[in-house]
Design goal:
2,3-Dihydroxybiphenyl 1,2-Dioxygenase, domain 1, binds ligand LP2KCY5N, binds cobalt (II) ion, MeMalonyl-CoA_epimerase, isomerase, VOC_core
Length: 137
């Protein structure tokens, strides 16, 4: 695994939290994106070399809706950049980690993603992210 690709933060209201994080980080949201397959709306900010992903539920079936109901707003997941997501998924599986998707799926910001169950990863929901190559978009 490489660097932390982003930190995902669950929020109730993307507009309100977007403004809050813009002030906090003294920056502006550089991208917003709906990801219907995950039932989320996202907004991205940079803090130096780091990336923050704000996540609002777009449907009551969203994992973010369930998380907000149980735990409230806050850090939802940590995403790590990987060069070869299928190889990393196979490695983690062989080490006993529980993958939440058997095949990489399309995430936000031009990434293929896979989630690791927090119960198998020390209570932290982990996301693997591989940049989708330009010629395979
Ligand atoms: C925008 C796209 C993408 C990107 O490109 O970056 C994203 O980031 S999408 C982000 C939203 N999508 C996901 O989170 C998908 C993966 N998540 C899931 O599949 C589920 O949320 C889950 C992790 C399997 C939990 O679902 P479920 O079992 O239905 O919920 P429970 O509330 O019953 O949780 C069971 C258990 O796990 C604990 N939990 C749940 N979420 C988290 C979390 N984010 N971090 C840490 N722990 C978490 C929860 O508290 C329960 O524990 P117990 O209460 O002790 O049983
Ligand atoms: Co994410």
């Amino acid at each position: 695994m490489n660097k932390i690709e982003h930190i995902g933060i669950a929020v109730n209201d993307l507009t309100a939290s977007g403004s809050l994080y813009e002030k906090l980080l003294n920056t502006t949201i550089y991208k917003t994106e709906d990801v219907p397959s995950e039932y989320v709306k996202t907004a991205f900010l940079h803090s130096g070399p780091n990336k923050i992903e704000l996540l609002e539920a777009s449907d009551e079936n969203s994992p973010i809706a369930k998380f907000l109901t149980k735990k409230g707003e806050g850090i939802h997941h940590i995403a790590f950049e990987v060069d070869d997501i299928k190889a990393e998924m196979a490695r983690l599986k062989s080490e006993g980690f529980v993958l939440l998707n058997e095949e990489p799926k399309r995430g936000a910001d031009n990434k293929l993603v896979c989630f690791v169950h927090p119960k198998s990863a020390g209570g932290v929901l982990v996301e693997l992210c591989q940049e989708i190559a330009f010629n395979s978009r």
